[in-house]
Write a structure and sequence with these properties.
Shape: elongated
Distance between the termini: 34 Å
Number of helices: 2
Strand order of the largest sheet: 1-2-7-4
Oligomer: single chain
Strand content: over 45%
Order of helices and strands: HEEEEEEHEE
Structural class: alpha+beta
Largest sheet: 4 strands, antiparallel
Radius of gyration: 17 Å
Amino acid sequence: MFKKLISILYFFVLFSLVLSEQLTITQTQTSSWNSNGQPFSVWDVKVSNIGSRVIYGATIVGISNLELENIWSVEQKSSNKFSFPKYISQNGGLMNGTYFNFGYINKNSQSAIFSICDIIY
């Protein structure tokens, strides 16, 4: 029984790794400043489809260091959850080898850490 449970867990871990490798996130800082001792930084985020399937949507989650001042070019679902802009699915999805960008201002000198879940194929 224990062996079967380990096999099932292994399958789910492997499956989740495959899904997470469909999209990558890279961030570039484009500006920064301090206002009354509060650091601010502007980030350009590139979400790339490196998988073989068309992706119509996903949830992007700020898992740490996210202190938003402003965010653009994604749909905000909650304080730390965002979805693909609607034009992605309306225009046939995010094809293999393509990407979209969004940006944000963080009330911090460092970038936020994002993860991706709920990928829609």
